[in-house]
Amino acid sequence: MGKNLKEAMKMLEHSQRRTEEENGKKLVSGDIPGPLQGSGQDMVSILQLVQNLMHGEEEEESQSPRIQNIGEQGHIALLGHSLGAYISTLDKEKLRKLTTRILSDTTLWLCRIFRYENGCAYFHEEEREGLAKICRLALHSCYEDFVVDGFNVLYNKKPVIYLSAAARPGLGQYLCNQLGLPFPCLCRVPCNTMFGSQHQMDVAFLEKLIKEDVERGKLPLLLVANAGTAAVGHTDKIGRLKELCEQYGIWLHVEGVNLATLALGYVSSSVLAATKCDSMTLTPGPWLGLPAVPAVTLYKHDDPALTLVAGLTSNKPADKLRALPLWLSLQYLGLDGIVERIKHACQLSQRLQESLKKVNHIKILVEDELSSPVVVFRFFQELPGSDPVPTAVPVPNMAPSTVGRERHSCDALNRWLGEQLKQLVPASGLTVMDLEVEGVCIRFSPLMTAAVLGTRGEDVDQLVACIQSKLPVLTCTLQLREEFKQEVTGTAGLLYVDDPNWPGIGVVRYEHANDDKNSLKLDPEGEKIHAGLLKKLHELESDLTFKMGPEYKSMKSCIYIGMASDDVDISELVETIAVTAREIEENSRLLENMTEVVRKGIQEAQVQLQKANEERLLEEGVLRQIPVVGSVLNWFSPVQASQKGRTFNLTAGSLESTEHTYVYKAQGAGVTPPQTPSGTRAKQRLPGQKPFKRSLRGSDALSETSSVSHVEDLEKLEHLSGVPEPDGLEPGGPEPHPGAPPPQEAELTGAFQNGAQRPEDDRPQVEEPESLR
């Protein structure tokens, strides 16, 4: 069985799919796939079909692996499912003994590993299913007549389930749906606001809520605490919560990723207190890198009848066989292998945390710096007049709108940073999340991803290096945003669009002549102009990225400018956008009006040609129009008729006579077309310099009449001849000729020429005429 499974996995993990020609089978168009086509198929063909269904119709090889990288322990877990199906064919007595042994062994091992003595275990596929069964057990324990009367006993004394505000989303709704309870039975307990972590449950406020519910005649039923919240991995004060639950007779259930550290030698006191709770949910699959392994809920209860009614225990062998994959995997790994994987994940978190402390503009949201297996960080900027650490409280010197705009701006940058890091270091398993107080953050939780992705210490170092390489891009973009806004505001025809969710330099929209500034609806003419503008900007091949938006097409189009990796000349960028958009608008107007102009010109030409034909008839007379008489009359007295025609000038949009063309044998110049608008601050770029980059040399290094060749001569002269550059003209010196080069260039060029010709002839060189220069 193991051999067949290994061969099947090799076939499914193989990246290349054999074609129909390689298989030697050609499907007829009328064949029906599956068992309906007649004879059965062999295992290879069936697995090939499964592989095709898994990978779909992919034509290009994706960079990421198509299937999760499964190690030897993963194959053991997958073998458990096949072995469970095989074991289910045994006779009932052998099956009962074997399944009881597997269930008891797995329960004992998990309780010993995670320090939960004398507990029972419930294995389930859905991670939240165990908590739902625990709630049902608590209902049966608190309401004795619940089995007989059902929900009628809940009417007089309504149960209350307490959840933290930092609990995973949708947990309360799932419990109510599974238990058939109304939503008012849920009580959301807020987190700390003044003291302690802002992701920990407020114990004092919880006690106040419990007292109020008791006074109202309600029954506090169950409290769900977190040993590592789903967002940032913070742990509630479980010891204090356990005391409160014992005081009011409430069932305490704990869940969270930090429960994995119970297998280590050193455990923090807050997590260690979870061993005294009434129940806890473990997820050993992600922690140990085991695919298709069920979650486990450990609990303590003395009445087996109630656990059977609640669904935590079952007499069916198939339910007990759920533990078989975990039973095989735990034996394969051993205690040392389990501890090593969890310890390795915690070391990765500590390594990243220590490295990020040395990086500027990175804030770390860690509860316990010594033993936190989850690292949450974000990029931040120092606001003027505020503390370096960003808070949710508005700064007194700043308007609330400014604080909100800065908050959204930082969120957009962090979202961009997270997506970039996920692409650059896929083995890190990063997650981008939006927190209510801090905003958008990046989470590194190796306990949930390291065993599956194979994260190593080198991946953490690469992650830190990528963060450091992206920080200049973020800071440079932030510095250029305000300058970009001022330049766009001061440029005619451009409108600055304030979109704080865009992580780039900014957003700009060109306002054409027919643009309705008071309306935000879709503008077809503006859409066409911005599409052409985007195409022109892409043709410049600059380092900046341009995008046309927004995503929803009901709004006006804009140009979104991306992140800046270097010092960008904002003035040149804005001017290029304005000039290019204006040129596109004028060209589009010309094309739109050309059809109407040509139509009117043709009609006018027809009218004029008809008039000319009538004049010719009057001039020649009626006799010349008679066929025979006209020929004789023309032979005796020929008519000297001038060739007249019409030409249409597209530039001027007017009709002109062709008499000038036939007389002088040349076409007229017509009206000179208007010049294409150009920028007033157009600058020359050095060879290899990309658009919108600030020049490294000063502005006086290049004059209006100089060229790149002069700069090259300058550099050659500095390295070869060592002639010093003159400081400039003397104040009282004569002014140079407008067409002549500047004195510095003339002297240096002459010196360079003299130095090149002196080996052949030592005579003084005669000054060249000014025209040759």
From TrEMBL:
Residues 372-478 form the PDXDC1/PDXD2 second domain. The gene is PDXDC1. Belongs to the group II decarboxylase family. Its cofactor is pyridoxal 5'-phosphate. Residues 12-25, 710-719, 758-773 have a biased composition (Basic and acidic residues). It comes from the Eukaryota. Transmembrane segments: none annotated. Pfam families: PDXDC1-like_cen, PDXDC1-like_cen2, Pyridoxal_deC. One of its GO terms (biological process) is carboxylic acid metabolic process. It comes from Panthera pardus. Residues 733-744 have a biased composition (Pro residues). Residues 484-589 form the PDXDC1-like third domain. InterPro entries: GrpII_AminoAcid_Decarb, PDXDC1-like_2nd, PDXDC1-like_3rd, PyrdxlP-dep_de-COase, PyrdxlP-dep_Trfase, PyrdxlP-dep_Trfase_major. This is Pyridoxal-dependent decarboxylase domain-containing protein 1. The lineage of its organism: Eukaryota, Metazoa, Chordata, Craniata, Vertebrata. GO terms for molecular function: carboxy-lyase activity; pyridoxal phosphate binding. Keywords: Decarboxylase, Lyase, Pyridoxal phosphate. Residues 12-37, 668-773 are annotated as: Disordered.
